[in-house]
Amino acid sequence: MPLRALSDPDHLPALDRRYALDRPALGLGAGDPPPRILLLYGSLRERSFSRLCVEEAARLLQFFGCETRIFDPSTLPLPDQVTGDDHLAVHELRELSMWSEGHVWCSPERHGQITGIMKLQVDHLPLSMGGMRPTQGRTLAVMQVSAGSQSFNSVNTLRVLGRWMRMVTIPNQSSVAKAFAEFDESDRMKPSAYYDRIVDVMEELVRFTVLLRPHTTQLVDRYSERKEADVPIDSATDLSSIATSPTYRKGE
């Protein structure tokens, strides 16, 4: 699998554990099995700051009790380059998305927008795939890194993409300005307000993922898809039909 190995997953030098909840979603729903989070980044540079931010996010998510996988996009073909998308990296990306309950997307800002590498990965995730939906109903956290002053162009675009992919994009987000100055010589993020925001975003992602877990099927149930698949409502078992029936209302 084209996955990035995560070094020192338990080492969190910028996190002040006195203020960190190890289970931020406690009481919101079942935390077992661990929430499954797929992380995507948008640069192939040897020292990619979007990748480094994603790795910091993955460490935090593991600290919060999640299972994480970081996809390596370096072998992905261009969209429509391979007939029928029959390429190992494309298959594995889609399988990882099917495995996941939530995503983290982090892109550099380049020419005021997300990078082609970031969009490439989203373009390889279809809305529907053999009756399965690789992104629909999953939670999403968006982040960006910038070489200069703080900007929100990339996260705004990622939000548009998340909505288009029918994902539940959480309210919080992270934008790291002058990212080259935020990492030490060991490629670990320094303590800062930017790091603290990433902690906030990952906490919120875990909460939304756990909170929505029991309701995902209902939240993505659509009239148009039931009609297309010719799946009529069974009034004997459908709770909404039962609740609005005259018999039920007489018993109120």
TrEMBL record:
Residues 35-179 form the NADPH-dependent FMN reductase-like domain. Homotetramer. This is NADPH-dependent FMN reductase ArsH. Keywords: Flavoprotein, FMN, NADP, Nucleotide-binding, Oxidoreductase. The keyword Coiled coil does not apply. Its cofactor is FMN. Gene3D superfamilies: 3.40.50.360. Belongs to the ArsH family. It comes from the Bacteria. One of its GO terms (molecular function) is FMN reductase (NADPH) activity. InterPro entries: Arsenate-R_ArsH, Flavoprotein-like_sf, FMN_Rdtase-like_dom. The keyword Nucleotide-binding applies.
